[in-house]
Each structure stands twice: as structure tokens, then as C-alpha cells.
Amino acid sequence: MEINTNVADTVRAEMARSRVTQGKLAQQLHLSQAAVSRRLKGEVAFNADELIVTALIVGVPVGAFFESTPAEAASPHAASAGVSLGGDAA
Questions:
Q1: What is the pTM of this model?
Q2: What is the pLDDT of residues 19-48, one digit of tens each?
Q3: Which residue from 7, 22, 57, 85 has the least number of CB within 10 angstroms?
Q4: HEC states along the chain?
Q5: Residue 58 domain-assigned?
């Protein structure tokens, strides 16, 4: 659930930056405003299509919704889960 919340936080920030309302996003995603609200709270995950459309609306690459902070990148959970943080694979 944490990734849903992190993505939702980033989407909300980008919406605010680009002055996109929940209503406008809901209209573009063909969802109700309540459904968008649940996604923005992290209660329901955005699907890939919704994130692609949202990225186009707010003017960022879709990958921006998944970028981690330096503290998250250094998390022991990333290392123990076998997540590569860059560099050559061994």
C-alpha cells in the first residue's frame, strides 16, 4: 500500500503545480471525482493507463510518479528485495 500512497502524493503535488483539479482529472480519466479522490488518497491504486493520461495532463513523464527520494533509495528494503539501484549487474 505504501507505493500507492507515494504515487498518490506525487500525483497530487504535480496536479497542484500544474493547477489541475480533481474534477478535470476525473473527466479526462472517465472516472467520477470520488474515484479520483480515492486514488489521490492512496486507497485505490492508479492503473497504468490512468497514470499515463495523468502524466500527459500534468506535463511530466510517467516515471516521475515513481521516483524515490534519496532516503528511500538507501532503504535496506530495496537492497533486501533485490532491487537494483543502478550500476552494473553482478
A1: 0.72
A2: 999 999 999 999 999 999 999 999 999 999
A3: 85
A4: CHHHHHHHHHHHHHHHHHCCCHHHHHHHHCCCHHHHHHHHCCCCCCCHHHHHHHHHHHCCCHHHHHCCCHHHHCCHHHHHCCCCCCCCCC
A5: yes
